[in-house]
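subagent[fold] <- orchestrator: predict structure for attached chain, return tokens only, no commentary.
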Amino acid sequence: MGDLTVYSFKVKKEQLDRSKRFFVRQGALLQDSLRDLISVAADCERCLELHEEDASISELQSAFATLLANCKNTWHLNSLLHEAVIKTAKICKVPLDFITNVLGEAQRVKPAARRI
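subagent[fold] -> orchestrator:
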């Protein structure tokens, strides 16, 4: 598995506890999901770096194959969160077309590069 680094960041305890319960409810672990997300982001960056370095097609394809393999571990997160939002909308009696429009708009809006 290579050299491991401990990485931490501050979150509100209440939010952390709720997110852990949510992931357990979905049959996943928060820590594993965060690791998978970091792995995919690192793989994406590696592919972009190789492209910027004018790497050979075989190097790019190899890096991309690794990226795709690691993406298998994160695809469920999008549908998992989408399903939770839709379920919550139904419980709250919010019209589903409104939620669908909001989710669609969220995908089109480019988020800020960093939070302060």
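orchestrator: received. Logging for downstream: Helices lie at 13-25, 30-52, 57-71, 75-91, 96-108. The chain has a mean pLDDT of 85.
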